[in-house]
Amino acid sequence: MSKQVSAESPSPAPPIEPSAVDPRLRRRVIGAAFAGNFVEWFDYASYGYLAVTIAAAFFPATDPATGLLATFGVFAVSFIVRPLGGIVWGRFGDRLGRKQALSLSILIMSVSTFAIALLPTYHQVGYLAPVLLLLVRLVQGFSAAGEYAGAAAFLAEYAPARRRGLQTSVVPASTAAGLLFGSLLITVLTTVLSHEQMASWGWRLPFLLALPLGFIGWYIRNRLEDTPLFQNLEQTKHVAASPVKETLLHNRKAIVLAFAATLLNAVGFYTILSYMPTYLSEQVGLDQARSFLATTIALVTYIGFIFGAAALSDRFGRKRVLIAGALLFIVGAVPLFAVLDTATFAAIVVVQVLLGAFLTLNDGTLACYLTECFPTRVRYTGFAFSFNTANALFGGTAPFIATLLISTTGSNLAPAFYLTVAAVVTLVAMLASPETAGKPLT
């Protein structure tokens, strides 16, 4: 921790106390963070949930399994730019302010997602279609790299210490809400439209919504001031000259711990909340409408569990809650996935709810934990780099690896074993981590 403190030397004047912030302003801050993050992950959810349909539109020359792998491959490749995006957005946010970075990232994300709705298919332009899809996904990945970290830092730096976990949990809650809206919308579309209509034009509808939703989020964010802690850095001229260099020189241990803590979140989030409808329809044999319905029900409970986990982290500490989440996955992932193969629809929903509850112990706590790992001068950079690197290597690849593991091993339990390994890595890191809850962010 001494290295992290030295990264802020010479110490700035005492910052504006977040607890003194007007409650009305804090509500606007929470609303702005929620709106932007909601839009970003609704966009991502739409692609993940429509993977089978997109595979048919952009990779029809292959068999269904190979086409699905190709679609998830494009999903994974878009994450390659996430570490670079984390560095760029982190430097932007630590040098020019959290608000400026967040306002720009949501515009880029919305425009690139809207562009997917306008892309020609393989039948229209041949192999140019998947190339264009990949390019748009790369832009999406770059913009998304600044969203989660920036929104978490924005909320944490406005929050009183005793409720920092609960307030920052709006970030993962808004992420889940974006997934929920995507799941609801696609459930309706697959129920109302025929298979031919979905394959022809119905899959484009969710992406068309990205532009108006994005401009609403941008408008809300653009009307706010930056955080009290960042304003203090500007006023006292203590803004980091080189946030990336400062992060790598003085916060190496924090980067390793943050990366390992994010590992379970990355694998768990994209396996349980994004890939699961595809798993249920392709591996378990559930029809698409009921697959989306099961995920939708699980997401409703998931959002409530997130706030509960965050409240627990404010009371008992981030470390204990993160350890508990890792242990539950180590013990329960394989047995719960085993139930899915032979379960009724009701049992499938129960399993998804339980897996979601396990994940919220990590997801509902992680955003706040990562903001507390890094000092204010480099908080955006440190958070964004470690979080996005873990997601690039293990999050975006999770649906692809799960599909590949099932294909090569012949076992539907392969994704559960992958989750278990990720949980073990996170557990080891958390045992080595100091407690961060309740401490001043500076």
From TrEMBL:
Main location: membrane
Subcellular location: Cell membrane
Keyword Transcription regulation: no
Membrane topology value: Multi-pass membrane protein
Transmembrane segments: 44-62, 68-89, 101-122, 134-156, 168-189, 201-220, 254-272, 292-312, 321-340, 346-370, 382-407, 413-432
Keyword Disulfide bond in annotation: no
Annotated region (Disordered), positions in chain: 1-20
Coiled-coil residue windows: none
Protein keywords: Cell membrane, Membrane, Symport, Transmembrane, Transmembrane helix, Transport
SUPFAM superfamilies named in the record: MFS general substrate transporter (SSF103473)
Major facilitator superfamily (MFS) profile domain residues: 29-437
Domain of life: Bacteria
Residue stretches of biased makeup (Low complexity): 1-10
PANTHER family documented for this protein: ALPHA-KETOGLUTARATE PERMEASE
Similarity section: Belongs to the major facilitator superfamily. Metabolite:H+ Symporter (MHS) family (TC 2.A.1.6) family.
Protein name: MFS transporter
Organism encoding this protein: Pseudonocardia hispaniensis
Lineage of origin: Bacteria, Bacillati, Actinomycetota, Actinomycetes, Pseudonocardiales
